[in-house]
């Protein structure tokens, strides 16, 4: 089978008929070489400084060393907050560098317990379980909860980790945020499955738009299903006090399971589920990835401080929203299509995959570090440049970003990318 490198994406190399893993790897190698030759392999850039609004990168052939960075989901800049760093350092001094075991057999420490109760309390709930990544919080818990006689009903735009969690169950997807389609599935599935669980994001990671939560809650209840909300990108930055989309309409006790990550606003790594105490206890002893894998390290105490800072220093959220508004209005006045975003994720929709890669390269040439998002993260014709704004970006940095976009638009003579 011949793969057209001009139109290909990473996904095309996943499983090729007749080619064993080494043959697939070899073909993927040829593809990577071709991408690199055209400056379109804009992934795994080597950063020499920490996560922040500006980063030093080592990109062969690129004249810049320092770039304005729009690739971190560290929305409030807490990975560099002195108190967050101090909390991690102090915990390492107290507990050492690792946890040494999985939670059931020796790796459950007081800081894990504290983290579970703090994140549950953050959402005004009683119980939580933590996982070592946000990805496993979704994939492992869903895999444990949903089996052959159950049904997962997914917004098509949920994160890859949710799809992975549903490999052992039945899955139906509805077009992104399409409530009529969701209702049709709920109606058709009624009485046909042991469990019907709807899974949505709060803030969607590619478009940056929000779920219509109260309408979804009403539908889910009307049809006797359950609701899982992954608000990885909304937590800490959306809602009056940063509790995420759940806060916008005061729906704290209306969502069955809240999932999220510690790798974005909470400035570390890890994930969690917040739910009914009995369900959480069940996961603690039935969810294989929690049960058989070592727990997070003492450095996770950074998260405890980051959670506190959301309440103690609300001005970071204010700065983030000012920066988002500034960048959005600048991009719109350049005639760029940023879609329905209502968050700190700002996509500029380009269209074809290779044109998207070229725009990403041109932005790097201008000293701006963004992400090129292609299929399968979005549909093949819907590639985009994604930017994540931080509270710690300065106006000068954002102006540099806008100037670079203006240069790209003029250079490529592309106005409204569709
Ligand atoms: N959910 C969503 C919506 C995400 O965007 C991501 C990853 N960025 C995850 C879950 C997984 O989180 P983590 O990177 O912490 O594993």
Reconstruct the topology from this structure.
Blueprint: H1 21-37, E1 46-47, E2 54-58, E3 66-69, H2 82-95, H3 110-122, E4 127-131, H4 134-145, E5 151-155, H5 160-165, E6 170-174, H6 179-189, E7 196-201, H7 213-222, E8 226-230, H8 245-248, E9 257-261, E10 271-275, H9 277-286, H10 288-291, H11 301-312, H12 315-333, E11 345-351, H13 353-365, E12 368-369, E13 371-373, E14 383-388, H14 395-412
Parallel strand pairs: 3-12, 5-6, 5-7, 7-8, 8-9
Antiparallel strand pairs: 1-2, 2-3, 4-10, 9-10, 11-14, 13-14
Helix pairs in contact: 2-11, 3-11, 6-7, 12-14
Bound molecules: 4'-deoxy-4'-aminopyridoxal-5'-phosphate (PMP).
Q: What brief labels describe this structure?
A:
alpha/beta; Aspartate Aminotransferase, domain 2; binds 4'-deoxy-4'-aminopyridoxal-5'-phosphate; 14 helices; 2 domains; seven-stranded mixed sheet
Structure description:
- The protein is an alpha/beta fold.
- The protein folds into two domains: 39-69 and 314-410, Alpha-Beta Complex (Aspartate Aminotransferase, domain 1), CATH 3.90.1150.10; 81-312, Type I PLP-dependent aspartate aminotransferase-like (Major domain) (Aspartate Aminotransferase, domain 2, 3-Layer(aba) Sandwich), CATH 3.40.640.
- The protein has 14 helices and 14 strands.
- The protein has helices at 21-37, 82-95, 110-122, 134-145, 160-165, 179-189, 213-222, 245-248, 277-286, 288-291, 301-312, 315-333, 353-365, 395-412, and strands at residues 46-47, 54-58, 66-69, 127-131, 151-155, 170-174, 196-201, 226-230, 257-261, 271-275, 345-351, 368-369, 371-373, 383-388.
- Helix 5 links the parallel strand 5 (151-155) and strand 6.
- Helix 6 (179-189) runs parallel beside helix 7 (213-222).
- It is globular.
- The model has no long low-confidence stretch (mean pLDDT 96).
- Residues 133-135, 138, 159, 161, 201, 205, 230, 232-233, 261, 263, 271 line the site of 4'-deoxy-4'-aminopyridoxal-5'-phosphate (PMP).
- 4'-deoxy-4'-aminopyridoxal-5'-phosphate is lined by residues 133-135, 138, 159, 161, 201, 205, 230, 232-233, 261, 263, 271.
